[in-house]
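The material for today's practical consists of a large collection of protein records. There is nothing in a record beyond a sequence line and a structure line. As an example, a complete record with its sequence and its structure tokens follows:
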Amino acid sequence: VTFFLRVVFSFTMFGNLFEEDYSTVSNNQYGKGKKLRTKVLEPPAPREFTNLSGIRNQGGTCYLNSLLQTLHFTPEFREALFSLGPEELGLFEDKDKPDAKVRIIPLQLQRLFAQLLLLDQEAASTTDLTESFGWTSNEEMRQHDVQELNRILFSALETSLVGTSGHDLINRLYHGTIVNQIVCKECKNVSERQEDFLDLTVAVTNVSGLEDALWNMYVEEEVFDCDNLYHCGTCDRLVKAAKLAKLRKLPPFLTVSLLRFNFDFVKCERYKETSCYTFPLRINLKPFCEQNELDDLEYIYDLFSVIIHKGGCYGGHYHVYIKDVDHLGNWQFQEEKSKPVVNLKDPQNEEEVDHPLMILKAILLQEENNLIPVDQLGQKLLKKIGISWNKKYRKQHGPLRKFLQLHSQIFLLSSDESTVRLLKNGSLQAETDFQSNDQHIFKTLPPESPGLNDNISCPHWFDINDSKVQPIREKDIEQQFQGKESAYMLFYRKSQLQRPPEARANPRYGVPCHLLNEMDAANIELQTKRAECDSANNTFELHLHLGPQYHFFNGALHPVVSQTESVWDLTFDKRKTLGDLRQSIFQLLEFWEGDMVLSVAKLVPAGLHIYQILDGDELILCETEIADGEDIFVWNGVEVGGVHIQTGIDCEPLLLNVLHLDTSSEGEKFQQVIESPHVFPSNAEVGTVLTALAIPAGVIFINSAGCPGRESWTAIPKEDMRKTFREQGLRNGSSVLIRDSHDDNSLLTKEEKWVTSMNEIDWLHVKNLCQLESEEKQVKISATVNTAVFDIRIKAIKELKLMKELADNSCLRPIDRNGKLLCPVPDSYTLREAELKMGSSLGLCLGKAPSSSQLFLFFAMGSDVQPGTEMEIIVEETVSVRDHILNFFSSQFCFIGDAWHLRKMDWCYEAGEPLCEEDATLKELLICSGDTLLLIEGQLPPLGFLKVPIWWYQLQGPSGHWESHQDQTNCTSSWGRVWRAASSQGAPGNEHVEVSLLYLGDIEISEDATLAELKSQAMTLPPFLEFGVLSPAHLRAWTVERKCPGRLLRTDRQPLREYKLGRRIEICLEPLQKGENLGPQDVLLRTQMRIPGERTYAPALDLVWDAAQGRTPGSLRQRVADFYCLPVEKIEIAKYFPEKFEWLPISSWNQQITKRKKKKKQDCLQGAPYYLKDGDTIGVKNLLVDDDDDFSTIRDDIGKEKQKQLALGKRKSREALHEQSSYILSSAETPARPRAPEASLSIHVGSFR
């Protein structure tokens, strides 16, 4: 059976909703040091300090991972699935048998949940699970909607569990019931229809939060009266009635889906609703239920999971906030972990007490019978010293179990290595050595921190982002109310669901025996592999070349006798120091006398060459540049065999092939080429070739291609003969041709093998971006994956015919598909190490590439940054934000550093979180090369304070002055910047009146301050002096959203924290003629009376509509009629949509219900299609003097025409861009990745009926 779901506009239309983009050229962040050998078959990493396991992303399965973690942290679902044994589900071994009924999906879910609970690995894999879904690799790379997956996965599970004791699992835990009723006011007859739900889908647009949305859905009722009556079947006539919906049955687990993705039918484009949408941690559903006579606790639900979507409607990523109901994880923040609990004042004893032997022995002595499981021993260690074993001791001492095995005289491990006991009759020497220190430990180790003991009182929250698991606080959930990273699905559990005490902090609870045994065996196998891998990774092979066994010959070092007798292989622990290595070699070489110097050497084609002398005996080997398989030359540091040895890369010997004409004994020259190898130092002059061959004068040609069969000879001018071989771009294997004159070219033409064309496959484009005049703007450079970037750069400088000085002051930078220059590539890298593909484009730019300790950063001023307009800077990674970065910017742009702050640009190309720790270094803040820093004006407010920009909101008259729509009091505007935009609060009929926002300044205010205090503080801004505002009561406050007034803020005495404003809030203030006190059910509307025959409106008047009796069209029409003193049947009203320049009439006669065909009732005015809210404009037409059906104005006609022309221009631009892209794709070697076609999500399930 194949489940296939297609929901229009909600899911399938976003088939490639979260598709990620991949660039052709990698923006590689270059590290330092040499690359070690590749680690093959390395076991998965163990769990982090949280002791929780993540799930690996297969490429596009973040939506699946988030939902699976939610189900895993639903203990009732997990344990109900575990209760189904092999006798009901079948066995994995029988899945390929034709007659066997193996329910593979539940079996794979069981195994995945067991791995998440018990397997000691950082992240589990879902490969087997997705294979059971019937998904291919393409499906695993394609991203889908998590709300769609939730329904399809539950449907697949229901089908898979047919005929088992778990057939009602989904229905029992997640299914609820809604009842829709129409009640006749005359006969009280109730017509009802019942429907089941798996999740509640609630609107986000124009709704403040979850409780508000549920109130609109299940409390507000629509009244059919006046000219909107209901035909009752019992009364058989039109009567007054009321329609409402209620929750009849609540499931134990309530799933809420937020409709954040919408479609704009005017603009014909998709968009994501990012406005503020609040939801409580605990919610009482009693007001929304049909039956409310039960105990109040039956209606209380607690939030335990929030699936979050980050990004827009065409790209993004899912992660999930999880509440650890069973206390399975270790909840502790990084800053808390970094504070060591052991506080020793005696520095002499500090090192001894910090030794793991002391601490582990002290922990075991506190346990009953000195016995403890090894896993709990690691947790106790974390609680005692504030940092895990892996973070503090693994690098030096290896895994915990291996450490216990190595100290068997003190610790006794059980046969299965699951528990450890402290030996009482062990080594007497060990006992006496540690006895005094143990007592010191007991005095200095304080009790367990309260932060950890909080696990006992209440569950904690974690952020699970694929493989990564991090602890969070409850207040962090509020950050997901709004923005591009915001809540998308909410999961609540009934508060009366209590967990048994034995399940607390016990991951083995409820897991079947066969899965326990499987996970235990897998953990033992993992431990064995990690021990083997740890041993392999912490040792390396060194090849010792003994100086007395070598002599200097033909420009390099060579063995005196043979290679085998001159080289000793040594396996050594890389965790030891250089002094330990030197001492070990001393012990091996008993014959050695005098000083011993260790140097890094390398075998080159000419022989052995010494590059670097190793200094600093205290250095740990793994921190030096010694790699596995390194050649170490052991000598006295001065000479070998009486010959002084030059060291370093500058004098590296080059083996060159020198070609010249054969000369007879009489001096005659034959047309026969002699090829002979010669060795020269890299820093020697090219002219030494003539001296070595005893040729008095001649012309030297070099092979610019550098590979046999690809020769392209170039003569070296006389003025360049004093250049070194390296400056000429020569390397090992390069060919050099010696000739007598420039004129005779017969040799080159006769040797046809030298005249070949450049291979068109192995090349790179190098563009001249040095801003220097050159005959060539772009050249092709042949290369292989092992070609050094330095060689490519030198070739490019030469072929572009640029100045030779650029060799010391230039670098190569990759160019991405958008033409942006990426980070410079270090000269020492090969193309493979730099991750540069053949056919890529590089830019030759002025300036040196950053060193290994430096960062290459982009920076810009302000948050509105266009791609490609950033500036660049190279800084040390150890500099701090305050002392160096801000000071640098202040000197460059001449501003005061305290009035600005830095933000890191996020992947959406928007200003991310601020760099609050201005005294921290860039390395500590995890800033990497290639990151973009934005310099934002404004000082960061202290913790608990808000920095709020204040705007003045008032209608602007024809004269350009600011005038009130209530008293028309004029005042000039001369401060700040002005926003003028289409707004629902505008005056659409008056072409000379527009709504604008005037910037007044910023205020810094506490989150605990009230709205009245914010208004009072705003009145202290200088521009307020000319506005003549009497008191804060004469100001109305709005939030600013999309440069327009948004949400109306009521209740002056309410603290700002309770408004959930967020960190980037902006407020606009509107003047009032007199104070007002709006209630929670009052709606503030702008009403405008239409002027008959002129297609325009009178100035707007404020109307307060009490919607407590119902937000229905009839109620609003009655209120407007009373306001204008007109009969209700003699007016028509319509809501204005300024962004569309359209009017939507509001009529009470909008429902017709018959017995044969019933149309769904029009929702209240807060819902579709009106979405009525504070500040909306309502047009009023007096039918006594104006019987025209049209509400529009001349301004609306102009606006619609402009929108039409704009849409036409966009369409033409898209067509032109498409044609240009098609041309580029047809000619480019690496085309851009096209957007994948839309595809529906399906899970394939066998038939078990």
User: Anything to note?
Assistant: DSSP finds 28 helices and 59 strands in the chain. The two ends are 11 Å apart (CA to CA). The chain has a mean pLDDT of 79.
